Amino acid sequence: MHINTVTLLQLQARHRTYRYLYTNIMKKLLFAAALAMFTLAGFSQTPDLRRKIEVTGSAEQEVTPDIIYVAISLKEYMKGKNKVEISTLERQLQKAVSEAGIPKEDFMINNLSSYNFTDPKKKQAADFLASKQYRIKVRDLNAINTILSKVDDKGIQSTGVDGYDYSKLPELRRDLKIKALQAAREKATYLLSSIGEKLGGAIDIQEIDNEPMNQPVYANMRVFKAAPMADAADSSEPVDFKKIKLNYQIRAVFEIAK
Predict the structure, then answer these.
(1) CA–CA gap between residue 110 and residue 94 (Å, rounded)
(2) Could you report the per-residue pLDDT of 108-150, keeping only the tens digit for each?
(3) What are the residues facing 111 on neighbouring strands?
(4) With a threshold of 0.70, does the pTM exceed it?
(5) Same domain, yes or no, for 79 and 157?
(6) Domain containing 119 — which CATH number?
(7) pLDDT < 50 regions, the chain
(8) Domain that holds residue 84
(9) Who contacts 153 (Cβ-Cβ below 8 Å, separation ≥6)?
(10) SS3 for 208?
């Protein structure tokens, strides 16, 4: 019994020793981790003592959209007691588009109006007039007048510009941003030169988001009506867009050389 008691006391003493050592080691590890974090925080808060100059450069250019999306709406109409059906008007438009050299993929149906969602019985009614909307992608807006002149004028409900694009926009955007950065560097150089300082390397470069969103204004409204066939070929008045201005800015920070 005496031996068991001594053994138990020894085990308890060892347990207390191990617990003390474990606690002491953990305290040291936590202290080391806290010290490391404090040191890193101190480094991150070290002030930037470099002398700097911040400038903004810009570059701009005017362009005319060379891709235009035109919306055309056709609608059935009554010619006396007979109905000029949408299929007849559509064939005329398809033929005119093909003769204008426009690829099939650039001629599409936008939607069907008062047709797909109309009661079949109502479609058969004599006074029901179906309509369809189309979207044509062209590079020459003057071609639309030629196309419309070959479609029954009474079946054309409306036409208008549905959108536009510029085929070389990615290249132009890149070139203007490069010119804007070069303009910023040139500005920083002559500003520092005026006080006897020299330009160092770039520290920070940021784009200023100012993508132009303005829509071009069409200068000639003749696109909104069909021209007579006799006048279509002789039309000398151009249908064109006013130019839009693209402007890009770059904010740059440069070091002032020692």
Answers:
(1) 14
(2) 888 655 545 455 555 556 567 888 899 999 988 788 888 999 9
(3) 133
(4) no
(5) yes
(6) 3.30.70
(7) 1, 115, 117, 214, 217, 219-236
(8) 67-165
(9) 226
(10) strand
